[in-house]
């Protein structure tokens, strides 16, 4: 997942915002957010390390942008899961124990990806 998220970012565009990246080595989890408050909480209280800005995305839908869904699996296997596929999102929710955290942001699709 880490590589996939790193590859969806674009250069700064009008109305684009940052996606902040954090990593928990102990949980083997990468956490991405457009919220400074969420990033700072993950670093200060949850043991994540700040990895800086991962990409530029959109906080609201613009022409041709698609949602990037964020899911979370609580417990000892603490894990965040990100996908642009609605069916993959539903499979993770219904079959793999993930909880829906909503739309993280909007991204421009990569043709053929």
Automatic annotation (TrEMBL):
<feature type="domain" description="DUF5648">
    <location>
        <begin position="8"/>
        <end position="108"/>
    </location>
</feature>
<dbReference type="InterPro" id="IPR043708">
    <property type="entry name" value="DUF5648"/>
</dbReference>
<dbReference type="Pfam" id="PF18885">
    <property type="entry name" value="DUF5648"/>
</dbReference>
<protein>
    <recommendedName>
        <fullName>DUF5648 domain-containing protein</fullName>
    </recommendedName>
</protein>
């Amino acid at each position: 997942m880490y590589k996939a998220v790193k590859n969806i970012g674009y250069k700064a565009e009008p109305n684009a915002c940052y996606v902040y990246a954090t990593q928990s080595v102990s949980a083997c989890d990468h956490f991405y957010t457009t919220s400074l408050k969420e990033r700072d909480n993950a670093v200060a209280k949850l043991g994540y390390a700040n990895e800086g800005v991962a990409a530029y995305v959109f906080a609201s839908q613009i022409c041709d942008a698609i949602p990037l869904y964020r899911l979370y699996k609580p417990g000892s296997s603490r894990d965040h899961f990100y996908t642009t596929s609605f069916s993959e999102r539903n499979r993770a929710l219904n079959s793999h124990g993930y909880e829906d955290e909503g739309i993280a942001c909007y991204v421009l699709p990569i043709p053929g990806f």
